[in-house]
Amino acid sequence: MTHEILTQLTESLVAGEPEAAVDLTRQALQAGIEPLEIIQQGLIPGMNIVGEKFQSGEYYLPDLIIAADGMQQAMQILEPELVTRQQKIETAGTVVIGTVKGDIHEIGKSLVATMLSANGFTVHDMGVDVPTETFLAKVRETNANLVGLSALLTTTMTVQREVIQALQAAGLRSQVKVMVGGAPVTQSWADEVGADGFAEDAMSAVTLARRLVAQK
Amino acid sequence: MPAESQHRIIFQPLGIRVSLPAEQSLLAAAQAAGVALVSPCGGAGSCECCLVRLVSGQASPPTIIEQRRFSAQELADGWRLACQALPQSDLVIEIPPESLSAPQRLQVESLELPAWLAQPPLPNPAFAAVPENTPLLGLALDIGTTKLAAYLCDLRSGKTLAQAGAMNPQTVFGEDVISRIAYAQARLENAATLQTRLVEAINQLSATLCAQPTQIIEIVAVGNTAMHHLFAGLPVQQLGVAPYRPAVSDALTLNAADLSLQAAPGATVYLPPNIAGFVGADHVAMLLASGLLHAENTALALDIGTNTEITLAHQGRRLSCSCASGPAFEGAHITAGMRAAPGAVERIWSDGEDLRLQTIDNLPPVGLCGSGILDGIAAMRQCGALNRRGALDPQHPRVSRVGGELAFRVAPADQTGTGRDLCITRSDVNEIQLAKAAISAGIAVLLGQAGIPADALQDFIIAGAFGTYLHIPSAIQIGMFPALPLGRFRQIGNAAGAGARALLFSAAQRSFVEQMARQIEYIELSAQPEFKPAYSKALFFND
């Protein structure tokens, strides 16, 4: 049986009310609901509805950003609880994601990271202006099978190629599938730099990640 | 999606886009897009007036008329007659000013210098060498990413003798700063091309303004950091990557001759300091002219563009930031967007019963410029066609499905200059939400850093072209500006140009801005944890 409070949590994400989502997450914990259940029956259904509405053209980027903001804030409350209870989310794949060195655009990258975690991926978000070596070290450490590289400027997208070449040089390229994204990035750019895939937006990135993981 | 036989044509430097079937000439494309090309012969190919330049893409081979009109070199450079050339792919077309029958509105009008700025004369030792009966001329330049403004000044009286504007010829190499930086670093010779084209345009402006540009003995040029660097021949590569450091922040004094500027022998060019990679000398000049550098009260000044620079003055501190607001208010990424040219809708308001429009030169509307888009969104909110999330109400009488999405009809086809409905689509609303959220969040972060609420602002100063024409209540309605009493807002026009003129006359003002620029605290928004929540909060409209 689904708790009423979790239904409300789902609705708060869909309605674009991140503050309500945070309140409801706290209330759910106080009511003794397991954090894993809050995530799986409250947050994830909410993000999935938002994602569907985005893909059908009903929702736009602001709706997605605001919902992801609510999900992220709620996860910040829940993650320590998961750790203390030694609970783990079953993972669809392990992703190392970040905005490449020289680029500090965060919003698109974080959106992809949030949508991937909402869809069961274990996401290591390295932030922005990430040195190539940091991507490599994290792939080694986590044994990741996906890498996501974001670049929002025509002046920084060339760094995506550098990271892919560095993965190759370090002998890690066969272990991971690489996805590239960002406003100036296109499929032909992805092909040119030797990425395994390109996605237009955060929702297509989830579809792409699933497809790439299945290929392995 | 356009059918395969459709091609997308962008007319630069106006920034107008149109999709047309392949069998129509570029002249027809221009007419359909509301671009007024000179064509007295009506497209017969006899007047040879409708010169355009093909910047990128494929067009039909030159006709006999064109082969007669242009040299082999001109043809190789892409020169065409618009009435003869047919598109064979998506195209970027440059329209030289002489081919436009109605020039784009260029903002050179600017505040007269307040007495306190114009007073102290420049103690330039070079003056002594000039005979008394010769005019002492100075040139103030505002080098914008899309527009140039030039002011010819009498250095003895401090008066502005003449002013003129032109498009920045670099626009065809990239519409925004980042694409121009990318162009400059793509090939070794590109930075020099950008510099040469800019200097040529400035020399043309000087020639328009005065019979003998060699009488100009002093020049002040302001621009954003990228324009400043490209003009001075400084490297720009590092401006394209974080942390976006300027190669030079301090003020520069260069020889006009070294930059190939037409001026008196020995004339110098003064470039005021830059604050950061995206807060340049033009912002410093604007802060000087707006009085913000001198302000003792709590005040904020901003200039809205693809990057919006904001400075807050509070208790002796000066805090600056730059927000990536995008080109939506310049008409880009907006379905019917265009720059402020004839036929652009610049005001939309409700007379209580219906919407009223005002267009530039009172022509039938062909598109929306920044102030028109802003008013349009505010009007949509007011009449209930748009909810707080930015979704359109399908039941509203002006809302219908256009292509794949809902759109709000600003003017019906029988009233427009294009023969099509003029609409604001859901995607356009989305672009404005992203832009206004960035500006609103930038303001919020600066206020937060100073620890004051928005209503502590005694003075809210808006500079720049879009800033001059925007309707303040609309900006408040959509949540871009805080809801202060209207009397606290000041729209001051091209204050960067006024600041450049003040710096032309006064050594004291130069040392003052140099000293102040060093004290300005630059806030990198992306490094502030409070930026993202503020941005996310500002994406929706106010209830």
Task: Give the number of DSSP strands of chain B.
Answer: 23
Strand portion of chain A, in percent?
5-15%
The CATH superfamily label of the largest domain in chain A reads: Cobalamin-binding domain
Helix content of chain B: 25-40%
CATH classification, class level of the largest domain in chain A: Alpha Beta
In this structure, how is the largest beta sheet of chain B organized? Answer: 6 strands, mixed
The named CATH superfamily of the largest domain in chain B: Domain of unknown function (DUF4445)
Distance between the termini of chain A: 36 Å
Structure explained in plain terms:
With 216 residues, chain A is α/β, with parallel strands linked by helices. Chain A has 2 domains: 4-84, Orthogonal Bundle (Methyltransferase, Methionine Synthase (B12-binding Domains), Chain A, domain 1); 94-215, Rossmann fold. Chain A is 58% helix and 10% strand. Chain A has helices at residues 4-14, 18-30, 35-55, 61-84, 107-118, 132-142, 158-169, 187-193, 202-215; strands at 94-99, 122-125, 146-150, 177-181, 197-198. A 5-stranded parallel sheet of chain A has the order 2-1-3-4-5, sandwiched between helices. The longest helix of chain A is centred in the middle third of the chain and has 24 residues, at 61-84. Chain A is globular. Chain A starts with a helix and ends with a helix. The relative contact order of chain A is 0.12. The model of chain A has no long low-confidence stretch (mean pLDDT 94). Chain B has 543 residues and is an alpha/beta fold. Chain B has 4 domains: 6-99, Ubiquitin-like (UB roll) (Roll); 115-282, Domain of unknown function (DUF4445) (Nucleotidyltransferase, domain 5), CATH 3.30.420.480; 299-326 and 432-498 and 506-538, Nucleotidyltransferase, domain 5 (2-Layer Sandwich), CATH 3.30.420; 328-427, no CATH class. Chain B contains 15 helices and 23 strands. Chain B has a 6-stranded mixed sheet with strand order 8-7-6-9-11-10, sandwiched between helices. In chain B, a hairpin with a 4-residue loop joins strand 15 (344-350) and strand 16 (355-359). In chain B, helix 5 (177-186) packs across helix 6, helix 8 crosses helix 13 and helix 10 packs antiparallel against helix 15. Mean pLDDT of chain B is 89; it is low at 106-111. At the A-B interface, helix 4 of A face helix 5, helix 10 and helix 15 of B.
